[in-house]
Sequence to fold (258 residues):
Amino acid sequence: MAKITRSISAKKTSVPSVPKKPAKKAVEAAPKPAAKKSPKPKPLKPKPWTPAEVYEAFSRFRKANPEPKGELEHLNPYTLLVAVVLSAQATDAGVNKATRALFAVADTPSKMLELGEEKVREYIKTIGLYRNKAKNVIALSEKLIAEFGGEVPRTRAEIETLPGAGRKTANVVLNMAYGEHTMAVDTHVFRVGNRTGLAAGNTPLEVELGLEKVIPSEFMLHAHHWLILHGRYTCLARKPRCEVCLINDLCRWPEKTV
Ligand code: SF4
Fold:
C-alpha cells in the first residue's frame, strides 16, 4: 500500500505544471500603462559668445567698414529726427526720395511750421502713413519750439515725449546726432542679435539691453550701424548669405549654411 502511494506522488511532481492563463477578465481590467509621451525636444540653447569672440566679430566689422554711415539723409539733428519719424514702416530709400525736397525748404522746426501740414503732406505723400506722419512732423516741431528752444533734446526720455518718436527713434538720434553709445534695434538688428546668439531676446528692448551688455564700449558708437548693415546686406531675412559672412565661424545659428 505504501509503495503505491510513493509512485503516485512521484508521478505528480514530475509533470511540469502548465501556467494557468490569467482570467481574461482580469487582463482586460488591468490598467494599461500610460503611453509614455516622448518629451518635446527642447531647442538647444546656443553657447553664449565669449568676450573674445564678441571682440573678434566687431574687430572684423570695423576692419571692413571703419566709418559706417546710416542711410537716412539729413542735414542736422532736427532733419535726422524728422527722417527717422518718417521711416517707420518705410524704406530709407523711399524716405530719402521725399525728404530731399522737403529739407531743402524746411530744415528747422520754425520753417516746417511755416510750410504747414498740408504742404508737408504733399512732400511726403509717397511714404506710407503719410497723413499721420505729416501731423506728427508739425506737432513735434511745435513742441520743440515750445519746450526745447527749437533744438532736439539730448536725452532719451525727452525725445520720447515728441509726437511720433519712440525709443528706437530716440536711440538713433542720440547715436547719430550726439554720438551717444545707444543701440537702436530695428528689424535687422533684432534678427541679427537673435540669429547669431549675440543677444537673443523676445522684444527689441531685450535685444537692445543684451547687445549693450556684451559689446565692448570701444565699438558702441558704430555697433548699431554695423549690425543694421550686416542684417540688410548679408544676414538677409529669407536667404542669409552665410558663405560671404564675416562672422560665419562665430555665428551660433544652427541653420547657417556654412
Ligand atoms: S553665418 Fe549666416 S546666419 Fe550667421 S550671421 Fe552670418 S549670414 Fe547671418
Observations:
- Residues 195-196, 234-235, 240-242, 245, 247-248, 251, 253, 256 surround iron/sulfur cluster (CB under 6 Å).
- The two ends are 93 Å apart (CA to CA).
